Amino acid sequence: MAEQRIVSLLPSATEIVCALGLADRLLGVSHECDFPSDIAGRPVLTEAKIEATGTSAAIDSAVLALVRDGLGVYRIHTDLLRALQPDLIVTQDQCDVCAVPFAEVEAATRQTLGTAAQIVSLRPVRLEDIFTDIERVAVATRRQDVGAQVVARGRERLDAIRRRLQRARSRPRVACIEWLDPLMAAGNWIPELVTLAGGIDGLAEAGAHSKVITWEDLAAYQPEVIVLMPCGFKLEQTQRELARLTSHPLWRELPAVCNQRVYATDGNAYFNRPGPRIVDSAELLAGLVQP
User: At what angle do helices 278-289 and 144-164 cross, to 10 degrees?
Assistant: First the structure.
């Protein structure tokens, strides 16, 4: 039987494929795939239509303009897709501003490959969904045994966090900020991670999309811990925008600021990437919330 030819159109899918031991079968990736390091140099199948190195406000404005005009934020290189002739395409159907929308992937596949390729679309909204997606990719790649091991190890590490925090003396109010301008409270699986890490998340709901909040909302919540995790931002990009937060009149009144418990993290590598490293994210968050 010929080896399966795989392409991934989002970073978390690439990490799942590699965790299953299939990096050598990964023929193409998205423009945002940057982990693990041995995928460097693979053909890139997607690109963004906006400048992703701008400020939070500029990126938000550009995305809203594209969405308002009925356009996608990303494009897929169909000529390269045709040249690679994959058997399996791993994509997502969770967020149209995080990767190429599923409908566009489906249309591009139908037009260039016909019915020759299988599409596995990931749509995680809760923590358990991430493990389910790993298992789904394992089934599609005939690596069920390896997938079961990856999931089992992940669950063991999460259980270790739960056991260590059973006797936590207090559970602080945590604000996880997924976007800086406008402010957005991180939803989906992040509130579950906060609970697991020994905190309370009163700004967002587990399983619901991240939502825009006002500075007044944040001030009223009186967060004792603030974790900055802008989606798609590496740590350096978040640090460049800190003045946007620290210059706001309400910033210095927040308990987390007064007690020096504000943390900037790499939201691109962790937290917003629903793959195997979500377990690393949980451990990192636990260290911040319950040091």
Answer: 10
The pLDDT tens digits for 1-53 are: 578 999 999 999 999 999 999 999 999 999 999 999 999 999 999 988 777 77
State pLDDT tens for residues 51-109: 777 788 888 787 777 666 555 677 889 999 999 999 999 998 866 666 677 777 777 77
Pairing state of beta strands 174-180 and 118-122? unpaired
Cα separation, 16 vs 244, whole angstroms: 35
**Phi/psi of residue 155, each to 5°?**
-65, -35
Which of 192, 207, 210 minimizes the C-alpha distance to 281?
Answer: 192
163-195 pLDDT, tens digit per residue, is 999 888 899 999 999 999 999 999 999 999 999
The side-by-side arrangement of strands in the sheet containing 118-122 is 26-28, 6-8, 88-92, 118-122
What DSSP assignment string belongs to 160-196?
HHHHHTTT-S---BEEEEEEETTEEE--BTHHHHHHH
What span, in angstroms and rounded, lies between the C-alpha atoms of 108 and 204? Answer: 35
Task: Write the Ramachandran bin of 184: left for phi over 0, alpha for psi from -120 to 50, otherwise beta.
Answer: beta
Please state the φ and ψ torsions of residue 53, each to the nearest 5 degrees.
-100, 5
> Measured between alpha carbons, how far is 193 from 40 in angstroms, rounded to an integer?
30
